[in-house]
């Protein structure tokens, strides 16, 4: 298991390099090399998830180790689907996704690295987790987190682009649509698409969580730190969704609006990550039975 | 008229302004952001604690400020409720304002209405619902519950019996932990047989060679050399061809056996030469060493030793004491049976001390010399008694002594009442009659250099002495670890339930430990009785509650000390249907907005340009350029 995990980590690290090379040297062959490396990492990751499932006799998403591996798997899955859809269905050049692939791979590798640091012994499911909602609830959340991580990467890329081209902003407005430059500029749109994929899953995850809590403990909502923080991340993305409707009625400059939205995404995803793995740092987490055991 | 109309107009203009604000996205965003900030505060500041705790944690000033603006219980505060009400109003107004009977509007309407439904449902639950809990002892019943958080007794209108409560546990798991002392590093390693694991921070590599779920140590006697370093005999006693006793006697260790029923003692001694051999045979005839009693008078130098024999009486010079030995037992708890039938478990002597203040008798235990002084009233506290019983002490009338020496002479001597009856040479495997009795003795094996070989094997046989069923039996697992290090390879058995096993340089240890029995399930068998009739019986567990007459009973806690009672959460949620409708609508609506609407719109408007079917607002919302 340890060896497989390390191998997966190395393959994902190779994928980071491959995606950077692809972005710098936009050759057609490189497109498939990068895709192939990430896919093989994903296959290894799938084997990890499946063997764990078979060994543990429960869905491999109940403790810290399992959720790190599963999160890595779902990020890779969502990104690969996204790339395939972009190339084959939407039929746009993959530069529309650009360096995001590399950023996603960094996140995946980071998760696998965390998994290597955590205790991988198989634990039995505590009574509260012995429910069919576990699979639905957790899968919804991880798919959502994966899509939202992509919006985070896109927001970073967008802001970097804006920063690089900040001197040439007027030029950017003048450039006709359809040019390469314009396409590179549309990472804010990509971020929106990623959020619109992830947000419904975030909502469903929140609601299945409430239904599960009702079935297990008798209350939909107990103001537990984990519940509160998942609400916070939901509210932040809700804000992101509503802001474009509000901004035209304010005095904020039109060219600054996408920057503001990207900054919100930049704040939102760390909140999601904090909800996922940082809650034990809170003073209120001592009373909670919702947080992964250390 | 004109004057009268003016305020009317202004009012309507004001109305519309308020209406505009209530409908606005701006208000929505402000509410959402405020809620998010409140939530963050609600997890950073400890909630619902005692005022003293806040003062201790944040200081008086800040603690006062917090409680004044209800930051100590944000989620039950007035302003947070107000925020939720405002959100509902905002959602309602905005929904009304934007209502269009168009297919593409479904998502918007459904999501916004569903959130109102959820909030309204929760308010209904809060006002008319029940949230409480009750503990039921096993075999007992309740007809009430206690409200939360103020613990008021409220009658249920029926009885709930807890017929049984059980905590099911998983069988224990074991893990192998390695520990490196100088780096203070601990790591759980794989227990897979045959897998080599290098221990981080050391030059060691461990391989689990064998794993036994339920192991025991067998001590197999072996002979390690022909030199008589530790001579031992395996002896069988038989009566009428039935073996009555057998075992090893070690000349230099446990060299005797008492047959209390037959008043017989067998011992085995080793002589260095023939002369000593003779002496040892005859020594057995004289009565063996007797127990002695040491009498010490505290505060003086007087010490006197006496043989422990019934009726032995000594007067202690220099004092007025006369001490008489009244009784002797090898096993105090069996002091009423004849001495020859007692095993030397707890030897004790009873003495009577006559002195200036009259007679005083006491038991003195050889294992607990000063026992009397602590537990009982005793007159002569300065008399200290110490009874010593030689290990080979025997009161047996019949004795068998087996003697062997270096030159190869080996004899067996039968002694009765202190007289040698016969001495014969013996050979291995031959039966010898013990004169005067039906017993036969046979020396089966002779090991000049006796030693024990430890082998670890799978435990066989039943569960004697264990007070549980076979399925509950958890063994004592052991693993054979081969450690490869700077000093070469060697394998050792490590047992669970033992202290850490340290390796030579004392810097590195392995611990094979049980990681605790994890809880599998909490189960309560509940029975609802109304008007003397059993209405429902159900085994509830976490994630599986009992419903009766709108009440729902959840397994929520238990008696942590004795598992004597089960803790139930009792709820009644009249708003459940509304809330669940809201949940389902929210899911459907949000899926419609993001996964159905974009495709539906394109299909509905095939052939049209984007600008024709998107409103400006929608294009902004969906980042369409």
Describe the model.
The complex is a heterodimer of chains A (294) and B (625). By secondary structure, chain A is an all-alpha fold. Chain A folds into 2 domains: 1-125; 126-294, no CATH class. Helices cover 72% and strands 0% of the residues of chain A. Chain A has helices at residues 2-24, 28-56, 64-89, 100-117, 133-164, 169-174, 180-184, 187-217, 225-246, 257-277. In chain A, helix 1 packs antiparallel against helix 2, helix 8 packs antiparallel against helix 9 (225-246) and helix 9 packs antiparallel against helix 10 (257-277). The longest helix of chain A is centred in the middle third of the chain and has 32 residues, at 133-164. Chain B has 6 domains: 1-78, no CATH class; 99-129 and 573-625, no CATH class; 135-170 and 522-570, no CATH class; 174-214 and 474-514, no CATH class; 221-287 and 394-452, Sandwich (Tumour Suppressor Smad4), CATH 2.60.200; 292-388, no CATH class. Chain B is 25% helix and 39% strand. With 625 residues, chain B is an alpha+beta fold. In chain B, the strands form 8 sheets. Chain B has an 8-stranded antiparallel β-sheet. In chain B, strands 11-12-20-21-22 form a 5-stranded mixed β-sheet, covered by helices on one side. Chain B is built from 11 helices and 34 strands. Chain B is elongated, with a radius of gyration of 45 Å. The longest helix of chain B has 29 residues, at 576-604. At the A-B interface, helix 8 and helix 9 of A face helix 2, strand 30, strand 33, strand 34 and helix 9 of B.
Q: Could you give the topology of this structure?
A:
The complex is a heterodimer of chains A (294) and B (625).
Chain A: H1 2-24, H2 28-56, H3 64-89, H4 100-117, H5 133-164, H6 169-174, H7 180-184, H8 187-217, H9 225-246, H10 257-277
Helix pairs in contact in A: 1-2, 1-4, 2-3, 3-4, 3-5, 4-5, 5-8, 5-10, 8-9, 9-10
Chain B: H1 2-23, H2 25-44, H3 51-58, H4 60-68, H5 78-98, H6 106-128, E1 130-137, E2 141-147, E3 153-169, E4 174-180, E5 185-189, E6 196-198, E7 205-212, E8 215-223, E9 232-239, E10 242-250, E11 256-259, E12 264-271, H7 274-285, E13 292-297, E14 303-307, E15 313-315, E16 322-329, E17 348-355, E18 358-365, H8 371-375, E19 383-388, E20 398-405, E21 410-416, E22 419-425, E23 431-433, E24 439-447, E25 450-458, E26 478-485, E27 488-495, E28 501-502, E29 508-514, E30 519-530, E31 533-541, E32 546-548, E33 551-558, E34 565-572, H9 576-604, H10 610-613, H11 616-621
Parallel strand pairs in B: 12-20
Antiparallel strand pairs in B: 1-2, 1-34, 2-3, 3-30, 4-5, 4-29, 6-7, 7-26, 8-25, 9-10, 9-24, 11-12, 13-14, 13-19, 15-16, 16-17, 17-18, 20-21, 21-22, 23-24, 26-27, 28-29, 30-31, 32-33, 33-34
């Amino acid at each position: 298991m340890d060896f497989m995990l390390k191998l997966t980590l190395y393959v994902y690290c190779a994928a980071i390099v491959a995606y950077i090379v692809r972005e710098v040297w936009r050759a057609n062959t490189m497109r498939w090399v990068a895709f192939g490396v990430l896919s093989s990492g994903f296959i290894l990751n799938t084997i990890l998830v499946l063997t764990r499932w078979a060994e543990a006799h429960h869905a491999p998403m109940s403790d810290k180790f399992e959720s790190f591996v599963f999160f890595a798997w779902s990020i890779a899955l969502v990104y690969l689907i996204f790339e395939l859809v972009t190339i084959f269905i939407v039929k746009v050049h993959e530069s529309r996704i650009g360096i995001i692939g590399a950023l996603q791979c960094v996140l995946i590798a980071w998760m696998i690295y965390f998994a290597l640091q955590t205790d991988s012994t198989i634990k039995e499911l505590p009574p509260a987790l012995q429910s069919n909602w576990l699979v639905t609830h957790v899968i919804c959340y991880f798919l959502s987190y994966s899509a939202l991580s992509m919006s985070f990467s896109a927001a970073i890329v967008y802001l970097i682009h804006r920063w690089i081209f900040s001197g040439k902003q007027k030029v950017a407005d003048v450039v006709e649509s359809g040019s390469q430059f314009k396409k590179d500029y549309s990472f804010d749109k990509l971020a929106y698409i990623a959020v619109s994929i992830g947000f419904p899953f975030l909502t469903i995850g929140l609601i299945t969580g409430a239904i599960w809590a009702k079935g297990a403990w008798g209350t939909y909502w107990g103001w537990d730190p984990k519940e509160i923080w998942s609400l916070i991340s939901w509210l932040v993305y809700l804000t992101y969704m509503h802001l474009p409707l509000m901004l035209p009625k304010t005095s904020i400059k039109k060219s600054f609006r996408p920057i503001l939205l990207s900054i919100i995404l930049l704040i939102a995803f760390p909140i999601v990550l904090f909800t996922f793995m940082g809650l034990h740092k809170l003073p209120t987490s001592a009373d909670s039975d919702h947080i992964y055991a250390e | 008229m004109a004057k009268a109309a003016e305020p009317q107009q202004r009012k309507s203009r004001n109305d519309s302004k308020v209406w505009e604000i209530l409908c606005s996205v701006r208000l929505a965003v402000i509410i959402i952001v405020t809620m998010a900030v409140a939530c963050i505060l609600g997890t950073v500041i400890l909630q619902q604690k005692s005022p003293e705790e806040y003062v201790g944690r944040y200081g008086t000033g800040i603690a006062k400020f917090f409680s004044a603006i209800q930051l100590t219980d944000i989620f039950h505060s007035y302003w947070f409720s107000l925020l939720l009400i405002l959100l509902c109003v905002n959602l309602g107004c905005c929904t009304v304002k934007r209502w269009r009977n168009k297919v593409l509007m479904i998502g918007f309407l459904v999501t916004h209405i569903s959130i109102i439904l959820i909030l309204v449902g929760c308010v209904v639950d809060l006002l008319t619902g029940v949230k409480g809990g009750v503990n039921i002892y096993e075999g007992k019943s309740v007809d009430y519950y206690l409200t939360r958080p103020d613990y008021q007794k409220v009658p249920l209108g029926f009885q709930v019996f807890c017929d049984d409560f059980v905590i099911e546990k998983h069988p224990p798991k074991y893990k192998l932990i390695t520990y490196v002392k100088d780096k203070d590093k601990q790591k759980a390693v794989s227990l897979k047989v045959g897998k080599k694991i290098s221990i981080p921070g050391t030059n060691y590599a461990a391989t689990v060679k064998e794993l036994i779920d339920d192991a025991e140590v067998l001590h197999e006697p072996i002979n390690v050399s022909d030199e008589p370093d530790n001579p031992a005999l395996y002896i069988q006693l038989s009566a009428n061809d039935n073996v009555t006793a057998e075992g090893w006697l070690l000349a230099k260790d446990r060299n005797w056996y008492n047959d209390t029923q037959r008043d017989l003692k067998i011992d085995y001694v080793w002589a260095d030469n023939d002369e000593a051999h003779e002496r040892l045979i005859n020594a057995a005839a004289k009565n063996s060493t007797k127990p002695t009693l040491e009498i010490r008078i505290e505060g003086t130098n007087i010490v006197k030793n006496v043989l422990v024999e019934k009726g032995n009486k000594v007067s202690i010079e220099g004092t007025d004491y006369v001490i008489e030995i009244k009784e002797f037992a090898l096993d105090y708890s069996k002091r009423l049976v004849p001495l020859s039938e007692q095993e030397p478990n707890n030897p004790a002597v009873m003495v009577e001390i006559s002195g200036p203040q009259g007679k005083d008798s006491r038991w003195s235990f050889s294992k607990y010399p000063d026992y009397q002084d602590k537990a009982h009233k005793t007159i002569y506290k300065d008399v200290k008694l110490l009874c010593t019983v030689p290990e080979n002490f025997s009161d047996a009338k019949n004795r068998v002594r087996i003697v062997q020496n270096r030159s190869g002479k080996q004899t067996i001597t039968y002694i009765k009442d202190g007289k040698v009856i016969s001495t014969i040479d013996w050979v291995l495997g031959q039966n010898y009659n013990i004169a005067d009795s039906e017993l036969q003795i046979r020396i089966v094996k002779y090991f000049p250099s006796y030693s024990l070989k430890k082998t670890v094997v799978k435990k066989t046989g039943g569960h004697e002495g264990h007070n549980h069923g076979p399925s509950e039996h958890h063994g004592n697992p052991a693993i054979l670890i081969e450690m490869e290090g700077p000093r070469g390879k060697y394998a050792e058995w490590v047992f669970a339930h033992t202290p850490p096993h340290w390796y030579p340089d004392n810097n590195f240890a392995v611990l094979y430990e049980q990681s605790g029995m994890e809880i599998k399930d909490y189960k309560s068998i509940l029975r609802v009785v109304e008007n003397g009739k059993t209405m429902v019986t159900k085994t509830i567990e976490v994630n599986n509650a009992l419903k009766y007459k709108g009440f729902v009973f959840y397994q929520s806690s238990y008696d942590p000390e004795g598992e004597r009672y089960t803790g139930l959460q009792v709820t009644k949620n009249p708003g459940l249907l509304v809330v669940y409708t809201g949940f389902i609508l929210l899911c459907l609506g949000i899926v419609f907005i993001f996964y159905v609407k974009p495709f539906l719109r394109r299909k509905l408007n095939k052939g049209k340009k984007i600008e024709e079917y998107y409103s400006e607002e929608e294009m902004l919302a969906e980042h369409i350029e």
